[in-house]
Design goal:
It is a single chain. The chain has 7 helices and 6 strands; from the N terminus they run αβαββαβααβαβα. The chain is an alpha/beta fold. It has a 6-stranded parallel sheet with strand order 3-2-1-4-5-6, with helices on both faces. Strand 5, helix 6 and strand 6 form a beta-alpha-beta unit.
Length: 216
């Protein structure tokens, strides 16, 4: 996005980014700080999820960081109640992990998402909430290109739970008027992406293999 447009929309705005020390959250944080936003980051710092203080090095003195879990319903009201924008990026994104620990995946991708929406309904109905969803719940494509009319046929627990999280955001918009939107991201890659294992997307993992001269 054009930096001037970003500055117009976010200068002086209070922003909360859940999962803010991860790959997408940290890149977003840097852009928002550059645009003049007042940024708060929430991250549980679970090693396998990709949160890393190194990711926000360029703006480490210009953001607030709260080390807590999205599942902590005592911390969330304090963080969410006065924000103009909430970028809801926190989640368990590994399809492999969702099959080995399905209840953990459900707690993070369903229960925690519903808790945030309930908190916003009670304390901050005016916040704009952007949820990062996934194309995963479409399953194996029946035709190309995949569009929003494609059948929903998740191939794993993560796909089911992410779809549920998205539908809660849409429902709270329709029923309670919360300003929610959902982005169905597909194979995102870029700076600060976690590449130490293959559980968060194949592009970064393939590039790591190639750079290290290993078999892809």
């Amino acid at each position: 996005m054009n930096p001037d447009v970003l500055a117009q929309n976010f200068k002086g705005k209070r922003v909360l980014i859940t999962g803010g020390l991860g790959f997408i959250g940290s890149n977003l944080a840097i852009k928002l700080v550059d645009s003049g936003a007042d940024v708060t980051l929430l991250d549980s710092m679970q090693p396998e999820f990709g949160g890393n203080l190194f990711n926000i090095a360029p703006v480490k003195d210009l953001v607030r960081v709260n080390f807590s879990d999205m599942r902590d319903v005592h911390t969330l009201p304090y963080l969410a109640k006065d924000k103009d924008f909430i970028f809801n990026l926190s989640g368990q994104v590994s399809h492999i992990d969702s099959m080995t620990e399905p209840l953990v995946d459900m707690e993070i991708n369903v229960k925690a998402q519903l808790s945030l929406l309930e908190i916003c309904r009670e304390y901050n109905k005016e916040a704009v909430i952007v949820y990062t969803s996934t194309r995963q719940f479409y399953g194996r494509p029946k035709y190309l290109p995949v569009d929003e009319q494609h059948p929903i046929e998740p191939t794993d627990i993560n796909g089911i739970n992410k779809f549920s999280g998205e539908q809660y955001h849409i429902l709270y918009n329709r029923v309670y008027g919360l300003k929610t939107t959902s982005l169905r991201l597909t194979n995102t890659f870029g700076p600060r992406q976690l590449i130490k294992h293959n559980r968060q997307g194949f592009i970064g993992w393939f590039i790591k293999k190639a750079v290290c001269g290993e078999l892809i």
